[in-house]
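User: Here's a chain of 245 residues. Predict its fold as tokens.
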Amino acid sequence: MTPLIEVRDLSFQYEDGTRALDNVSFKLLPGETVAVLGANGSGKTTFVLHLNGTLRGEGSIQVCGTPLTKETLPLVRSKIGMVFQDSDEQLFMPTVLEDVTFGPLNMGLTQEEAIAKAKSALEKVGMSHALDKAPYHLSAGEKRRVALAGVLSMDPEILVLDEPNTFLDPPGLRNLLHLLRDLPQAKLIITHNTHFALAVANRAVFFEKGKLMADGEVVEIMQRYDWTYSPLPADDLRYSAQRRF
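Assistant: Prediction complete.
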């Protein structure tokens, strides 16, 4: 099976001399959901920011069979949809519909086509009722769904989510879990919440000091690194983890 993402020997050093990535190699296959685990500063976010060319280090990256270069950057970015940790970074238009329409319009779609894409994406995430609402009036969970709709409206093949469970209460987190399970795209999910990782991912990787130290089943990675921290009570997600297995 041809990988959707193939990274080989990726290294990156910040201007202050910090070596943030050290010979990282990784593959993402169609249909996979991979949890990206590791401490703050271990290289997780630096790694995913290389996948759409926001950062450029040494090594090679292929996305959907296309080598990532300056020339192929627009094509690669159309394949990868990124949802940031803080949804407010992605929501900036006066209404939800305008926000989700923004991406398709910038891809060259007509106003009518862009609105149709936006409405379809909002329906997928359960936010059709909020078309005319101002994003800043939404709850944290609703903002997360609208930010995800903005990405889905551009039909990416891969989703990258940075701490998608941040600021969510238990109902919002359960809704997000159901939504992510139903989406067909391959996914990379950065999270500290191992109960969330168990519930949504079928594989995990572990970063430490810029190195990708381990790649395997979520439970095995958790046990190997004693990585069991969760910011929410275990009971809130236990039923989801049980359902996942």
